[in-house]
Write a structure and sequence with these properties.
Chain lengths: 476, 237
């Protein structure tokens, strides 16, 4: 059948199909997909320790009483190249631990199958049954920005530029639109490349900042004026917008504008009025502050304050995924002995208290706790050298570790390891989690991302060009 | 040739759903003629294969620095001569207060600005528009000479669409040009109507059932100003 000279029925249908496809796209295909959520909601706590942490003080300790790791042998030619130096640490808690272990103090703490360095706090160790330590991760870089962005996205950066989306954005995207701020980033970088607006991170640095995000600031419009404005925005669709929308930027803009108004229209702000005055605290804030032992401005501005924002966002249903820089200032090229353990310890204390709090909170209207639905990934951009330098500091080191926990993660488990010579990464048998220097696989951040997403029942297709491996030993 | 016709036809079909603001004079707006009938080519120029999408530099969002420069230009000056801009509740320049939150590089920690149209950006632009438009209109309504006003230049401060329809329409066209760089033709009723309706509803929202006062009209202009400042056309270029 010919409809018009030179036009076949096939051509007409092709054109009609193309045009109707455009109409369908414009009429909201993305929002429909956005509302598709998995049946078993999963939360993510993505905790970052900024600056590069010392493995031996936390996740991959060495026995300081071992002759190989004494100062006089570690630095010798042919020596181990590993000096834990716990005895140089001035932190009171570390000193107390070593004193308790005297006369042959190792500096190592044990719980179940796990071993920890002396900077890990009892508040975190108490959760050992839920924790999985992954040792011997190859970070492939000694540059802060690169390591940080590598672990945030699971993709090696392009130069210094982040490549891909943050783990939290991927989780927020796959879980769909169900929260006021699906993806909250507290004092940390986060990225969303090619994801819909609802999955984009909302960056804040304090509870006050979050309040400013959740409440309209300044003079408001009358409600009828506001309604008129929204009708106008919904109706108007100008040619100028079409011209600017070749890359989808206008669509993103409109989606983001709608999301921003949803965000400020809710009641979530009541949960983040973090005042230290008990008389002005809501019951939720009071409970939270008691649980996290927040009583001073320093607490509020430090790791506990950051952790409190994350906990509140997860427990009150504000966010699906929270990235938080729990601790910073760990780049101790100088004065590692006086600074590093204390800094780590304060961060771990906050993390341990948050886990305890999540375990005490009911998940929505179920019999579960929030922790039952929370996956935790705790990381730093790389580690610190196994030898102390001449300035009592430690420099950047490739071999790092991370801490993982969650409903799909096998707790009370140590995976991988590092060598007793220069603290280098070892390949891992992905099925058993044991070091396997011959047939094993080198573990990278992309493998952690893929395995964590897998444990949450989510896809990790976006990592395809990183050739990720599933560490099956990590999975329940 | 058939492929070309297919592409052109598809473009034409999609374009029918586009409310054509600059229909009055295609040479005055920033639009690109994609019809393939543009007579601009010299007669001896070889035929041009018009793609279905004109690819040029990608559209991008204003940076914070650009916004800092743009708002005062668009919104004019306060009575004391200082530039109108968004002030945070603590009376500090809003774009300075939220600069770090919105990812403006400090060239210490960050060297690259995130120019995504994120919900956070749009949230603060909402706040900015409501505040800055109010400041601009407060200044305008204190100036008796229309030519000295930034926003209400072609109508009296008490005029509504029922008392001075021509003046209101002219001012709306002026604002569209001022904020978005889009010139609407005098006879382009389809494009002006939504803006006029918005203005009228804004006035009514403030006045309720009584006759509108000057303050009610000011509220109408504020809603229009907010709509223009929070539109994609203002932020994307």
């Amino acid at each position: 059948m010919v409809l018009k000279q030179g036009w076949s029925r096939r051509q007409f249908l092709e054109i009609a199909g193309l045009a109707s496809g455009a109409v369908i796209l414009r009429s909201g295909l993305l929002p429909m997909r956005a509302e598709a959520s998995t049946g078993n909601p999963q939360l993510l706590l993505f905790a970052y320790f900024s600056g590069g942490w010392d493995q031996m003080l936390c996740w991959d300790p060495r026995d300081m009483s071992d002759p190989r790791f004494q100062a006089d042998t570690a630095y010798e030619r042919g020596g181990s190249g590993i000096y834990p130096a716990y005895n140089l640490v001035t932190d009171a808690a570390v000193r107390a631990l070593l004193a308790a272990q005297a006369p042959n103090a190792s500096g190592i703490q044990s719980a179940g199958n796990l071993t920890f360095g002396p900077a890990v706090t009892p508040s975190l160790i108490e959760h050992y049954n839920d924790l999985c330590l992954v040792r011997g991760i190859s970070m492939e870089t000694l540059t802060h920005e690169v390591g940080r962005r590598y672990f945030i996205t699971g993709k090696f950066p392009r130069g210094l530029t982040a490549n891909g989306s943050a783990l939290s954005s991927v989780v927020a995207n796959q879980e769909g639109v169900s929260r006021d701020i699906p993806n909250l980033a507290v004092s940390t970088e986060s990225y969303a490349e090619g994801l819909p607006a609802y999955a984009a991170p909302i960056h804040i640095t304090s509870a006050a900042g979050l309040l400013d995000v959740l409440r309209p600031l300044g003079l408001q419009l009358a409600s009828a004026s506001d309604a008129a404005l929204r009708d106008f925005e919904t109706g108007i669709d100008t040619c100028e917008q079409h011209q600017h929308n070749a890359s989808g930027l206008v669509s993103i803009f409109r989606d983001s504008r709608a999301k921003a108004r949803t965000m400020t229209g809710g009641t979530a702000s009541q949960y983040f009025n973090f005042t230290l005055n008990p008389a002005q605290q809501t019951p939720e804030v009071r409970d939270l502050f008691n649980a996290l032992q927040i009583s001073t401005t320093a607490d509020l501005n430090g790791p506990k304050g950051k952790a409190a924002i994350a906990a509140q966002a997860l427990c009150r249903g504000v966010s699906q995924a929270v990235s938080v820089q729990i601790q910073s200032g760990m780049d101790d090229h100088f004065n590692w002995d006086t600074n590093h353990a204390t800094t780590l310890k304060n961060g771990f204390e906050a993390l341990g208290l948050v886990i305890r709090y999540l375990k005490s909170q009911q998940f929505r209207s179920t019999a579960d706790t929030v922790w039952d639905h929370t996956t935790l990934v705790c990381f730093s951009e790389f580690a610190r050298t196994p030898l102390v330098n001449s300035r009592n500091g430690r420099d950047h080191h490739l071999t790092s570790s991370c801490l993982v926990a969650g409903p799909g993660i096998r707790g009370n488990t140590v995976l991988g390891g590092s060598t007793d010579l220069n603290l280098l990464y070892r390949k891992m048998n992905l099925a058993t989690g044991q070091p396997d220097d011959v047939n094993g696989t080198l573990v990278h951040p992309s493998d952690i991302h893929a395995t964590v997403l897998n444990s949450m029942g989510l896809t990790y297709d976006h990592l395809f060009n990183q050739s990720p491996h599933i560490i099956s030993a990590m999975l329940k | 040739m058939k492929r070309l016709l297919l592409a052109l036809s598809a473009s034409a079909l999609i374009a029918t759903g586009c409310s054509k603001i600059s229909s009055g004079n295609s040479q005055q707006g920033p639009t690109v003629d994609m019809s393939g009938n543009n007579p601009a080519l010299p007669f001896d120029h070889r035929p041009v294969n018009v793609p279905s999408t004109i690819t040029s530099a990608s559209a991008q969002r204003l940076s914070i620095a650009q916004l800092r420069g743009t708002l005062p230009v668009a919104l004019g000056n306060n009575l004391d001569g200082s530039a109108v801009t968004w002030l945070y509740p603590n009376n500090q320049p809003g774009l300075t207060v939220v600069a770090t939150t919105l990812g403006e590089p400090d060239y210490i920690e960050t060297t690259e600005e995130d120019l995504s149209a994120s919900p956070l950006y749009l949230k603060f632009m909402d706040d900015a528009a409501r505040d800055a438009c109010n400041r601009a209109l407060t200044a305008d309504y204190s100036r008796s000479s229309p030519s000295q006003r930034a926003l209400v230049r072609h109508a009296d401060t008490a005029d509504t669409a029922s008392t001075n329809a021509a003046g209101i329409d002219k001012n709306l066209r002026y604002l569209k040009l001022r904020f978005h760089g889009v010139k609407m033709a005098d006879d382009d009723e389809a494009s002006i109507a939504p803006l006029r309706n918005l203005f009228t509803r804004g006035v009514q929202a403030s006045a309720g059932t009584r006759p509108p006062t000057v303050n009610d009209v000011k509220e109408g202009w504020r809603v229009v100003c907010v709509a223009l400042v929070t539109a994609p056309e203002f932020h994307i270029y």
